[in-house]
Structures are given as structure tokens and as C-alpha cells.
From TrEMBL:
The keyword Ligase does not apply. Coiled coil: none annotated. GO terms for biological process: regulation of apoptotic process. Residues 2-82 form the DED domain. This is DED domain-containing protein. Keywords: Membrane, Transmembrane, Transmembrane helix. It comes from the Eukaryota. Pfam families: DED. InterPro entries: DEATH-like_dom_sf, DED_dom, Jacalin-like_lectin_dom_sf. The chain crosses the membrane at residues 174-196. SUPFAM superfamilies: DEATH domain (SSF47986), Mannose-binding lectins (SSF51101). Gene3D superfamilies: Death Domain, Fas, Jacalin-like lectin domain. It comes from Adineta ricciae (Rotifer). PROSITE patterns: DED.
Amino acid sequence: MEFRSILIDISNQLSDANRHAFHFALGKVIPRKCRDDCTPDGTLRLLDCLFERGFIADDNFDNLINIFEQIQCFDIVEQLNEYRSRLIHTSIAEPVSPSCTDDGIQTLLSLAYSHSMSVNGSPSSDELVAELLCGNIQSRTIALPKETYTVNERKIKKRFSIVRSILYSKSNQLYMKLIIIFILSMILLLLSFCAIRHLRKSNFEEQSSLRQHGKYISITKIIYNCVQLLEFVYTMKEGSPYGNKLFWTNRSFDDARDLLLSYTDCCIGIRLEWTNISLKSVRFLYSNNQSSHLAIPEERLFSDTFMLQSNENINKINMYTNNGTIVGIQLCTTDGRKSSVFGSTNGHFLTESFENYTFSYATGKQHNDQIVMLQFHWMKRTSSKEKIITEARNMREICEFIFLSNKTADRTIVYAQGIESSWYDLKRKLHREGDAYDMAASYYQKTRQKDRGPELFAIINSDTVFYHHNNQWHMYNSARNVSCSIRPWSD
């Protein structure tokens, strides 16, 4: 009964996985009907079937121990071994009560002598005889070692299995650590590559100009920019060709191709040379220490360099053309800065800007000592999570301000708004005469004719406004809230 109680306890200890493994290991011993029922009741019926088939017995369950060893249930194996040791000990310790006859005494002496050989410190046969002759016949308990060689061997096997599983677990942890180290190494390599690119940019030959404009990039910004590169996609937009695009020449240039520019390379400045009638040379400076140098004349009358600040990009370019020749160029930036006009304003005003795009690189043609065609290419950095809009809207510069009108007695506040143009175009369109107010001035035409305000006006330094009357320029003393911005515009 005790053995069956132990089997019930063992059945309750089995997990679902161990129970299925136990039934599977006994597949050749029991019928399939008993094997397929892996419930706790099914396990008890399976054990009862093992009793019926003689596979196990109350005093012989070595086969059961072997099965549990195969499915690595070592706790149950140890429990069964302890029960077997206890069973052997109990069977030997049963009291011996032979009769006080010669045959009984002789039998008892033989039993005592045989056990005295296996127990250290047990009494000799003479002492046992003396006790028997004196009538002190008592049962003696012969205690055998609880752990036999077989039990020790199984414990060693169990410990070895546990150590082996630990080693396997540590091996898996080692593999995971190696993978993590590899990923971190790749990230550090990418960050180092970006840092080198920025350091090379800072060592560009225009380093003195970069110092003056404070173009130093901290390590924190470099790491931030490198991480941002992984989250953005780039969209390119091709601008219109300016100048004589039909002029044939074998001297053409493409900065992206010739200078091996990547999406992360950007324009950091532009150097120009010009005469009083035309633009002669344009040199675009890029962050990869490369630059394009076009149409270098033998004698330069005027030259200047326009450098960009850190994180500043060109978002609008104004062009002046006369009879298909580029005579002047002006740059506007994302920081609201506007360069002077390089070259001449004596030409038709053309402007190019696209919503959310910034200047990327230039292509064009040159002939002898003159640039005959320029084309700008624009780039937009968009988050990979956002929807990419293929159609880019044209942008124009709009300027607005308020002033007090002198035409009424109560000096009414008038709101004025104009769109950027050039004095060359405005004086022909509006039949005005006279010279431009200043080379640094920007000129605007009223956006809607029905609105009040001047037909055209000029702005200097983003805060001083002039209007044109009787072929002369006059300053608005009451002009306030002057604001210029680039907005989507359709002609």
C-alpha cells in the first residue's frame, strides 16, 4: 500500500510535459488506449496496467526507475531509490524470534554470524551464543548503508546533467552577448564615419571663413545627425535651366557626378566672380571638401564668398538674365538671410524655390569665360513615416507692412502687401523712370490691384520701406510691422 501511495504522489508531481514523455516512453509496454490518455487519472490507470503486466511490483520497480531516468525526472528517481533503500532496510530489520531449541539456536547463530561479517563493530559469534544461552534472545537490527553504488551512480549522473544544462545556458548567454557587442560595434562604426565626415568638413580650405561664421559642430550634434539619418528619406526635385539651354558646348558639369556627392553632403557656401555686365564664375563649396570651379576668367573685376551657418541651407535662388545670359544671382537661406546680388540686376527677375526643399547641387554649361546655363537641383528630407508628396509647390517671397496714410485727415492705417520682383521689370511694367534705389534693396509689386497701398515699394535691411513717386524714392516714416516670408504661390 505504501508503494502505491508513493506512485500517487509521483503522479501528482508530474508536469504536463513530463506526463506526456512518461506515456510516450512506455509506448511498447502498454496498449495505445492507456498511452493516449495523458490525464492524471490516465497516468494512474497506466501504472495499474504496469502492475498487471508484471512490468513493476511492490518490491521490484527498477524498470520504472529507468523510465524516469530516460525522461530526466531525477527528483522522482531519487524518491524511488530512497524508498527502495528503506524497503531493504526494513526487510532486514524484521525481528527474529526462533524457538529455544537447538535447531532454533543453530539457525539464529548462523544468521547472526552471516550478518556480523558485513557490519563493522558487530558482536562476535561467541557473544551471541552467550546471550542466547542466558535466555536473552532478542531481535537485532542489522543496518545496511542506505546508499548503494547504484544510487550514487545515479546521483552523479543527475548532477552531471544539471551541470551540463547550466553550461548550455551560459553558452546561449555568451552568444547573445556576442551579438549585442557586434550590433554596438556597427553603430559606433557608423557614428565614427559621420564624425570623420564632419571633421573633414571643418578642415576645408575655407576654414577661416567658417570660424568667422561660427561653423563648429559639437560631438553631440554629430551623433544626433547620424541617428537622424536612419529615420529619413530624401526626395529630389529638378529646377528649371537658366540661361541659354540650347547653346551647344562640350564643357558641361554635374556636381553630383563629378564630385561624388551623397545625400548627406550639402552646400556650405558659394564663391562668385563677375563683371559689371555679367556673371563670370561660380564656385559651389560642399561639405565633402569638394568644390566645382566654373569659367575662371583671366581678370576678375569683382568677387565675393557667401558662407552658410551651421544647419543653414539655401531655400531660394534669385536669377537675373538678359538676352539669355545670366548677369546676376542672389541667395536666400532657411535662416532668413539674403545675400547681396552677385553681378548685375540689369535683367529679368527669375526666382526658384520649392516648398520644404533646399538646394542640393548644381549642373550647367560654360563656354570660354562665361557661364551660359545653370540648373539647380533641390532636395527634401522627409520622415519615413510621412507620406511623400511628389508635386512640389512653387514658393515666392511676400512682404507686408502697415503705415499711416497722409491722404486722409484721420491718417488711416493702411495694410500693404507685395510680391518680390526687380526694378528692371517693374519700371518697364509700370512705366516708371529713374534708377534703382540701392543694389542691396529688394523690390516688390502690389499683389492685388484693388487693395490700398503703393504699386511698388523697396525694402532695405528688412525694416526700412521706400515708395516710388514722381520718379523718385521716398521713405515711409510710419512703416511698421515689416515682415517678409517665402510662401506657396501660383501665378
